[in-house]
Design a protein that fits this description.
Elements lengths: L1 H13 L8 H8 L5 H30 L6 H33 L5 H13 L3 H24 L5 H11 L1 H7 L2 H22 L9 H24 L11 H25 L4 H28 L3 H25 L3 H43 L1
Helix pairs in contact: 1-2, 1-14, 3-6, 4-5, 4-6, 6-7, 7-9, 8-9, 9-10, 9-11, 10-11, 11-12, 11-13, 12-13, 13-14
Amino acid sequence: MMTQKRSTIWHWFLDGKIAPANLKAAMLEVYPHPNAKNWQLLIANILLYLGVLLFGAGVIFFMAFNWDALSHLNKFAIVETIFALFIGGFYLTNRAQKKQYLQQKSQHDQYHLQAQHNQQTYGWSLANAMLLGASIMLGALLALVGQTYQTGADPWQLFAIWAVLILPFAYIAGFDLLWLLVVVLLNVSLGLYLQSFASVFSFLLEDMQQIAIFGLVNLAIHLLFTLAKSCQWRGQLRFNCPMVEATSLLASLSAFTWLIVWIIFDFSYDFDSSEHITYYALLYLAILTSLFVWYRYRSPALYPLTLVLTSISTAIVSLLSKELFDSHDTIGGFFLIAMVVIGLTSGSLYWLKKLQTEFAQTAMLNSEEAAHE
């Protein structure tokens, strides 16, 4: 968004709508130089969250190293006390932030205070750091219960239950790291589940089907956050997590790219397997076409289009590589593949650069229409 605003200002300057003497001031208005306070806040947030993560890891390693030296009561007392302290810290810091917001609230600066309050509530704040620490301790507590009482549960159940239990924390915080932790736990639990039952239900869960399931699950997560963020409703800000959207889309397209490469290299096109190959290929093409149309025309964005082009280029290079392995002229084949890689990369970069200019012009026109209204 910030890059689009700067590009819009630059086009206004090229069109003569901004004087050369005012260009620097306009750029600084959109993207001001960080002052000492901004740097201190950034460093403080980095140290805060790094400290919470290291503290949680330290508690887990402490319990593992002193497992035989501690009694069951001491183990549960340590983990539950730390968990309670994190929850109490979240309550106190969140209450202090709301109290400060109510004291400073006035009609003159209500908009700026509301934006600052939303950033503190849903962003990198001390309260959300407390919830992140509580989420880690909750996972440690679940692992402690399983190890102490030997419940016999499969490993995937631990991560699945952990993800479900921290869902309220992620929704309350509306914070990237917490939502990303939920997504990672869901993927880990799904992978362990498929690994545990693939041999039992091998006729249902083949390797290619597992890859397709991973791709579809992460695509569903991406669509969930995208739609929840774009729809106008009460919890809209709690799903504004660009990191989760980008990571889930990357994981989904990586899985589908792996799927199409597997089809190209490891499967013979005989009568028995051609039907399944057709289904997977059609699934791959349908998903990439839908993503391309959506992010090209409906919701223009460069990052998803870059992933789509990368996946298509990988499929093309894989297909040529397979033909290279089947041919006898390997030197000529490698030369051809090198030229194709250069051509695909150059063409994709050129087209993405043109799209960036087009998106900036569209954003400029939308800004002008909004200003006239």
